[in-house]
Amino acid sequence: MTWLITGGAGYIGAHVVRAMTEAGERTVVYDDLSTGIAERVPADVPLVRGSTLDRERVARTLAEHAVTGVVHLAAKKQIGESVQRPLHYYRENVEGLRVLLEAVTETEAASSFVFSSSAAVYGMPDVDLVTEETPCAPLSPYGETKLAGEWLVRATGRATGLSTASLRYFNVAGAAAPELADVGVFNLVPMVFERLTQNASPRIFGDDYPTPDGTCVRDYIHVVDLAEAHVAAAHALQTSPGHDLTLNIGRGEGVSVREMVDRVNAVTGYDRPPTVSPRRPGDAARVVAAADRITTRLGWKARYDVQDMITSAWEGWVRLHPEAARA
Ligand SMILES: O=c1ccn([C@@H]2O[C@H](COP(=O)(O)OP(=O)(O)O[C@H]3O[C@H](CO)[C@@H](O)[C@H](O)[C@H]3O)[C@@H](O)[C@H]2O)c(=O)[nH]1
Question: Is Isomerase one of the keywords UniProt gives this record (predicted)?
Answer without folding.
Answer: yes
